[in-house]
Amino acid sequence: MTVEPTGRRERKKAQTRRALADAALELFLERGYDQVGVKDVAEAADVSVTTLFKHFSGKEALVFDQDDDIEAALVAAVRERPPGRSVPQALREHLLLAQSRFAVHAADPRFPEFTRLVRDTPELSDYSQRMWTRHEAALALAIAEASGAPADDPGCAALARFALEARSLIQRSADPVRAADAAFSLLEHGWAAAHPTD
Fold it and tell me: Could you tell me the pTM of the whole model?
């Protein structure tokens, strides 16, 4: 869950980070990813290159500026779930909420350009895949902690992976709730319970 910065310093940092990400996206869409350097982005946001690197690890990270927030929200969905709510149920609810936010972004006229930019730029496609792999490791650890399992438990790793994969299934579906119900029922109860005649 994203926490709004409350102090003046935190708000200023968040504003600088947002300005950098917005400038980067604008330049990447206008000129092409390979035609823009970090210096160009820093100049467009009216900050130094040193400041840019205080906020982002590299050029690719500028495109995925909410990476840390996404991971923190996934982990919080597991750790902060109400008593009696299972991990799969909590992840289902979290991903449906994320889907509604995704739909808002998808309504932005630049969204098709953004998805094309990521898809057609090998560095960004690779970074996106690595980003989700990192989320998988953090989520698996949170699931293991929540269930009292060892940190390297393969069942927890599998649940994390399948939950993250369900995200793309939910995003592509014309009926996201139905897709989430099907995916997470399977994760909660297994194939035999979901398909008792097979």
Answer: 0.74
